[in-house]
């Protein structure tokens, strides 16, 4: 984002605007954290602003201040479309292709509002007037912090905004352990703590509120873990029946793929989750080192993301999807064994 872009955005925001902020479908901690942080900032600047999420999100994100104001498109479509049509500005956060918003794609695409991207995923689509894209950033929440700094308003970040930003940075860095966590990330975190964020409480709110069923589902997932030593790979499966058995709630499988990656010698891990409602198998991919799961997912599973973390989907059955995955691995044997 250029200095001229920032100057123009500052001018736009100097007058009261109708603003819609949108995360991707099935929003995670970074998506909800970044949108709510920006929401509070813009509300404090006296704009008319609303967050519209394509659908619901995990319960462990529902403590974040302002969460109760989020409109879910799939539940309030008429109201949401009206707000999108009336918007002067639409911020799209934590995604860079409109299809990531599901049924919201067409209304956003057709909206006359000025569109602004803030995102850290690779290969952004060309749909916005202003694009703040940086694949080297650990999270969109860190980018929102820098965006507010570029606007000259980092001093306006308070505890409420800070809690939302901390949540997204923490979750997207795996509690600050992923390679994308930089010294700058830690300086941002230090400033958020100085602004009043209780880091221990945020961590507890997100990670230490497991239901009994969620832990039982984790046990089921781990019992399904398979290791493919010839490819330094591992995968986990969860069928719809297994999800139903343990009363699956949105977010219950968050982070489970990382258990596969934690196995000694494994540098590429996947989880395949059957979803009868959408008639797909949802896929999460993780890697260590230079193995690029973004490219892998784009090439084979209609997805994408980052070098070490990506998602995808398959319209085959669960078994066919896994068989397909295993059949692809020989193409990458050299990379996975280097």
Q: What is the element layout, followed by pairings?
A:
Blueprint: H1 3-12, E1 18-22, H2 29-44, E2 48-53, E3 71-72, H3 77-86, E4 89-93, H4 105-110, E5 114-119, E6 130-133, H5 140-150, H6 159-172, H7 183-194, H8 199-207, H9 212-223, E7 226-228, E8 233-238, H10 240-245, H11 257-261, E9 268-275, E10 280-287, H12 293-300, E11 304-305, E12 309-314, H13 318-328, H14 333-337
Parallel strand pairs: 1-2, 1-4, 2-3, 4-5, 5-6, 8-9
Antiparallel strand pairs: 7-8, 9-10, 10-12, 11-12
Helix pairs in contact: 2-5, 2-6, 5-6, 6-7, 6-8
Number of domains: 2
Give me the CATH superfamily of the largest domain.
inorganic pyrophosphatase (n-terminal core)
Give the name of the CATH architecture of the largest domain. Alpha-Beta Complex
Task: State the secondary-structure class.
Answer: alpha/beta
Describe this structure in words.
- There is one protein chain.
- The chain is of the alpha/beta class and 338 residues long.
- The protein has 2 domains: 3-207, inorganic pyrophosphatase (n-terminal core); 212-337, Diaminopimelate Epimerase, Chain A, domain 1, CATH 3.10.310.30.
- Helices cover 40% and strands 18% of the residues.
- It has 14 helices and 12 strands.
- The longest helix is centred in the first third of the chain and has 16 residues, at 29-44.
- The model has no long low-confidence stretch (mean pLDDT 96).
């Amino acid at each position: 984002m250029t200095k001229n872009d920032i100057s123009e955005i500052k001018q736009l925001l100097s007058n009261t605007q109708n603003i819609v902020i949108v995360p991707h479908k099935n929003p995670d901690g970074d998506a909800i954290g970044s949108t709510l942080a920006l929401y509070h900032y813009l509300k404090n600047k006296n704009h008319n602003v609303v967050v519209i999420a394509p659908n619901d999100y995990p319960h462990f994100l529902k403590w974040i201040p302002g969460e109760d104001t989020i409109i879910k498109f799939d539940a309030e479509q008429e109201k949401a479309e009206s707000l999108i049509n009336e918007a002067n500005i639409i911020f799209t956060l934590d995604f860079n292709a409109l299809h990531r918003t599901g049924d919201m794609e067409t209304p956003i695409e057709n909206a006359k509002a000025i569109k602004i991207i803030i995102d850290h995923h690779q290969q952004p689509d060309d749909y916005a007037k202003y694009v703040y894209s940086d694949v080297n950033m650990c999270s969109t929440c860190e980018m929102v912090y820098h965006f507010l700094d570029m606007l000259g308003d980092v001093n306006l970040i308070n505890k409420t905004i800070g809690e939302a930003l901390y949540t997204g940075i923490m979750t997207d860095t795996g509690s600050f352990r992923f390679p994308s966590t930089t010294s700058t990330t830690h300086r941002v975190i230090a400033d958020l703590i100085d602004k009043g964020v209780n880091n221990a409480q945020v961590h507890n709110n997100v990670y230490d509120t497991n239901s009994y069923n969620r832990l039982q589902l984790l046990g089921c997932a781990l019992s399904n873990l398979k290791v493919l030593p010839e490819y330094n790979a591992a995968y986990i499966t969860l069928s719809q029946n297994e999800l139903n058995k343990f009363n699956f709630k949105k977010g219950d499988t968050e982070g489970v793929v990382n258990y596969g990656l934690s196995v000694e010698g494994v540098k590429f891990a996947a989880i395949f989750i059957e979803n009868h409602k959408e008639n797909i198998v949802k896929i999460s991919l993780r890697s260590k080192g230079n193995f690029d799961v973004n490219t892998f997912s784009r090439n084979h599973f209609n997805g994408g993301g980052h070098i070490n973390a990506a998602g995808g989907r398959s319209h085959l059955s669960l078994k066919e999807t896994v068989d397909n995955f295993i059949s692809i691995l020989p193409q990458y044997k050299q990379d996975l064994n280097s």
